[in-house]
Amino acid sequence: MRLESPRNPRIKAWSELKSHRGRDEQGLFLVEGTREVARALAAGLTPSAWLVWPERAGAEEMKLLEAAPIFELSEAAMRKVSYRQNPPPLIGVFERPARRLKDLPSRPRRVLVAVEIEKPGNLGAMLRSADASGTGAVLVVGKAVDLENPNVIRASTGTVFSLPIAVADHNEARAWLRKRGIQIAAATPAAKKLYWEADLSAPTALVVGAEDRGLPADWLEAADLQLAIPMNGVADSLNAAVSAALFLYEALRQQSD
Description:
By secondary structure, this protein is an alpha/beta fold.
């Protein structure tokens, strides 16, 4: 098979999927790496093409290649397409999945609400914690980074594909939670109650905002609980992903008793 060169128009189109605009325009996105590709397939996502670096691909990669055309790329072409400094031997081109509220479980016991998280590494790490703690659903709300961002996929280790996730605006997300009787617990450093002092045994949505801005006022007003994480040093905030993990595992602890 002839190797695809960097000058091929297909390479240009695939490389544009590294940008939000390219993903929106083409309705496709890239999944880089064997583990992440395997998790995308296990979640039922549909591949439209496989991009293989034949000099580096082994049996583990080749056994994943099915149901889509295979393109062998030169090293230069793979470097042009890949978001990573050191490209993997396999990149999958996938159709973007729907992320709809109506597809979520009817009344999950634990919900992570990620509000306007614009750092892809943070969002990916939050998803990883949600997966590890057995969180029933995730709502990505407002002007957040898109879930098919390469760094979200990488930081989540591919758990972005297996979690029940919906993208919604602020009002839609709150209405969905209220309709299901899920209490809203908002993380804010201004709260007087610490997160382990609250009763999180009922179905609960743990709402975390961006670390530089915190949660918008409408989320704080809608919250049944406002909860803080103790800060005993000179720092005035925690990483959003760390905050989410603390809240999710405290809810898991209480709901497991």
